[in-house]
Amino acid sequence: MTSDEPRRVLQRGLWFEEMEVGTIYDHRPGRTVTEADNVLFTTLTMNTQPLHLDQAASEQLPPFHDRLVNSMFTLSTLVGLSVAQLTQGTIVANLGFSDIAFPHPVRHGDTIYAETLVLDKRESSSRPGEGVVTFEHTARNQHGDVVATATRKTLVRMAPA
């Protein structure tokens, strides 16, 4: 590279060494959920729950009286919103999810925003050059209501030597 050429940076997630326990990462932009998103995801995953697909039936179901966004779509979006900033190109594998909760429903037209707290990290004892990172993901709607939480363990690459 000559001095005339600008520095070029490829977007990627963070290497194991760059993640700091106790740091919260805010993921932006958010994602506005449409009716089409909900119907497509629900039918692709064979979830025939009327609460997601049938407006007339949902109107009769307390306490919501309306269709709600499939909670698995909400979880997938929550994790997906974190990828570009945290794990794009640096993750080896998801090792597991726990403590998943949906304290507030998501409705068509809601916008989901995500944040991630790095809970823990350690070098892998069996996989040189990789480490285990535990994330606590939180999704909020446009009003700030928490709509989903999840803890996720991942295997992440260390920076190349």
UniProtKB/TrEMBL annotation:
Transmembrane segments: none
Residue ranges occupied by any MaoC-like domain in the UniProt entry: 20-139
Family annotation (SUPFAM superfamilies): Thioesterase/thiol ester dehydrase-isomerase
InterPro entries xrefs: HotDog_dom_sf (IPR029069), MaoC-like_dom (IPR002539), MCH/BMMD (IPR052342)
Recorded family membership: Belongs to the enoyl-CoA hydratase/isomerase family.
Protein name stated in the entry: MaoC family dehydratase
Native source organism of the sequence: Longivirga aurantiaca
